[in-house]
């Protein structure tokens, strides 16, 4: 706590089309204090820092985002030092990774269920040898990943190596898998990296199987992603494989409800429905920003592309 960040308004708004006679950073008294163009952290939290731009001539006020920032105090976090500590992660609690972890002793990892706290790794420790063989014939959804579902959570600098995630189901059910999370809703993944393999019967993604109303930023994936369906009918909306995300859901009129920003992929992608270097299926194309893909993908897929395979908004034209 007490650390400060100064914003260079001249640089940030150098190409801004709006003349700003005055700029004020919006205050967030629970998380940070404001003095001029500098904010100072007060408490643990994650927040989208915004500012107001005032134009004296038009009397207009514009509000813009300065980016997502987080602050933390170690006393507000449970410490993860062992595999057993990681297995105990739950709910809204905050966690701080304190060691490299080897999960090879866990034959079949049970994904952490419905997480909504802060999970951070500021010192860059590595979690390796995550293995999941997850099959069910009785559940309507079968999600695979280090986390089953993240809803409202924030993950920072999670590093996974030698990952092997498989989410299979019987015909007719849904299986979504990503190395970090099966399903991401209203959450934020920042500066995460994965090396390994992900396979799912429906939504397969290197980082997340499916996501909506969330952001994945500055993340990388290297490895293989595959969709292997047991259903004879191939569907471009559900038989998908993406380098970062399998299925991205957002209103095509407001695609920024789900954002994949500054992500990098080097992978082999396999699916018969849709394959995309960043996301296989998207509702709005603008949700992918400043990303790159290298590798190979299925030439026999119904829809394919280096950024996305199929975009819902294209089908509405």
Summarize the SSE layout with pairings.
Layout: E1 4-6, H1 9-12, E2 22-25, E3 32-35, E4 38-41, E5 45-55, E6 60-71, E7 78-80, H2 83-87, E8 95-97, E9 101-102, E10 118-120, E11 127-128, E12 131-136, E13 141-144, E14 147-151, E15 154-156, E16 159-169, E17 174-178, E18 181-185, E19 188-190, E20 193-200, E21 203-205, E22 208-212, E23 215-217, E24 220-227, E25 240-242, E26 245-249, E27 259-261, E28 264-270, E29 274-276, E30 279-282, E31 288-289, E32 292-297, E33 303-305, E34 308-311
Parallel strand pairs: 7-8, 8-10, 9-11, 10-15, 11-16, 12-16, 13-17, 14-18, 15-19, 16-20, 17-21, 18-22, 19-23, 20-24, 21-25, 22-26, 23-27, 24-28, 25-29, 26-30, 27-31, 28-32, 29-33, 30-34
Antiparallel strand pairs: 1-4, 2-5, 3-4, 5-6
Biggest sheet features: 8 strands, parallel
Which structural class do you get from the secondary structure elements? mainly beta
Query: Which term fits the overall shape?
Result: globular
Mean pLDDT: 87
Q: Could you tell me the radius of gyration in angstroms?
A: 20 Å
Quantity of strands, as a count: 34
Overall CATH architecture of the largest domain: 3 Solenoid
Describe this protein's structure.
This protein has helices at residues 9-12, 83-87, and strands spanning 4-6, 22-25, 32-35, 38-41, 45-55, 60-71, 78-80, 95-97, 101-102, 118-120, 127-128, 131-136, 141-144, 147-151, 154-156, 159-169, 174-178, 181-185, 188-190, 193-200, 203-205, 208-212, 215-217, 220-227, 240-242, 245-249, 259-261, 264-270, 274-276, 279-282, 288-289, 292-297, 303-305, 308-311. It is mostly beta strands and 317 residues long. 3% of the residues lie in helices and 50% in strands. It is built from two helices and 34 strands. An eight-stranded parallel beta sheet has the order 7-8-10-15-19-23-27-31. Strands 9, 11, 12, 16, 20, 24, 28 and 32 form an eight-stranded parallel beta sheet that branches. A six-stranded parallel beta sheet has the order 13-17-21-25-29-33, with no helix packed on it. The model has no long low-confidence stretch (mean pLDDT 87). The N and C termini lie far apart (50 Å). It has two domains: 4-71; 76-316, Pectate Lyase C-like, CATH 2.160.20.
């Amino acid at each position: 706590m007490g650390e400060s960040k100064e914003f260079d308004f001249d640089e940030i708004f150098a190409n801004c089309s709006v003349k700003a006679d005055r700029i004020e950073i919006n205050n967030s008294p629970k998380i940070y204090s404001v003095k001029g163009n500098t904010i100072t952290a007060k408490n643990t939290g994650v927040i989208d820092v915004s500012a107001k731009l005032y134009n004296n001539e038009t009397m207009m006020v514009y509000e813009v985002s300065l980016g997502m920032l987080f602050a933390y105090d170690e006393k507000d976090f449970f410490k993860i030092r062992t595999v057993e500590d990681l297995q105990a992660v739950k709910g809204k609690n905050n966690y701080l990774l304190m060691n490299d972890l080897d999960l090879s002793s866990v034959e079949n990892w049970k994904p952490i269920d419905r997480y909504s706290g802060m999970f951070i790794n500021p010192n860059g420790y590595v979690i390796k040898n995550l293995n999941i063989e997850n099959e069910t014939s009785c559940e309507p959804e079968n999600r695979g990943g280090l986390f089953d579902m993240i809803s409202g959570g924030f993950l920072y600098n999670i590093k996974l190596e030698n990952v092997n995630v498989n989410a299979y189901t019987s015909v007719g059910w849904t299986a979504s898998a990503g190395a970090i999370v099966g399903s991401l809703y209203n959450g934020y993944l920042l500066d995460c990296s994965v090396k390994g393999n992900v396979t799912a019967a429906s939504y397969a993604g290197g980082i997340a199987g499916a996501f909506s109303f969330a952001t994945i930023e500055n993340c990388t994936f290297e490895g293989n992603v595959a969709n292997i369906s047991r259903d004879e009918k191939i569907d471009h909306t559900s038989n998908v494989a993406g380098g970062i995300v399998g299925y991205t859901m957002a209103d095509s009129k407001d695609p920024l409800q789900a954002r994949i920003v500054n992500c990098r992929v080097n992978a082999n992608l396999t699916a018969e429905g849709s394959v995309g270097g960043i996301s296989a299926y998207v509702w709005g194309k603008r949700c992918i920003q400043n990303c790159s893909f290298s590798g190979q993908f299925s030439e026999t897929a119904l829809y394919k592309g280096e950024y996305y395979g199929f975009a819902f908004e294209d089908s509405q034209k």
